[in-house]
Structures are given as C-alpha cells and as structure tokens.
Amino acid sequence: FVVIAVLCLIPIIKIAVYVILYKIVAIVIESISDKRVIKALECVEESTKMLMYIVMTSGLLFIITIAMLAI
C-alpha cells in the first residue's frame, strides 16, 4: 500500500510545486508587468490546481480499484 501511495503522491507534489512557483512568479512580476500578464499567470495557476485535483482523484480511484481487486 505504501508503494502505491508514493506512486500517487509524486506527481501531486510536482504539480503543487508548479502551483507555488506560478504564484511566486505572479507576485514578483506584479509590480513591473502589465495586468494582463498577471491575469494570465493566475489563470495558468488555477488550471494547474485543477490538474492537481484531477490527479488526486485519479490516484484515489486507483487506490480504491487496487483495494477492491485485492479483496
């Protein structure tokens, strides 16, 4: 079970790092860039969050499927 959980957590951690990096870049660039660029970065951040939620849901379904097959 631990190996399966680690296999599911690695992509989630990578995507979470991307979300944090997009947020940091948007904060740093906010003072020197146009508002449209900031809005675009915020949209990319939101879509990356959605991707993270999809990966989390898929991982949960994968774990439930393995548990059902193991019984």
Description:
The chain is built from two helices and no strands. With 71 residues, it is mainly α. Helix 1 (2-29) runs antiparallel to helix 2 (35-70).
Flag low-confidence runs. none
- The total of beta strands comes to 0
Query: In whole angstroms, how far apart are the ends?
Result: 13 Å
Q: What characteristic shape results from the CA principal axes? A: elongated
Strand content: under 5%
Structural class comes to mainly alpha
Question: What is the element string, with H for helices and E for strands?
Answer: HH
| Rg over C-alpha atoms, rounded to the nearest angstrom | 17 Å
Number of continuous helical runs: 2
The averaged pLDDT comes out at 93
Task: Give a quick account of the main beta sheet: strands, pairing sense, barrel closure.
Answer: none
Specify the helix fraction band: over 70%
Task: Give short descriptive properties of this protein.
2 helices; 71 residues; single chain; 90% helix; elongated; mainly alpha
Give a summary of the structure in a few sentences.
The protein is mainly α. It contains two helices and no strands.
Present the secondary structure layout.
Elements: H1 2-29, H2 35-70
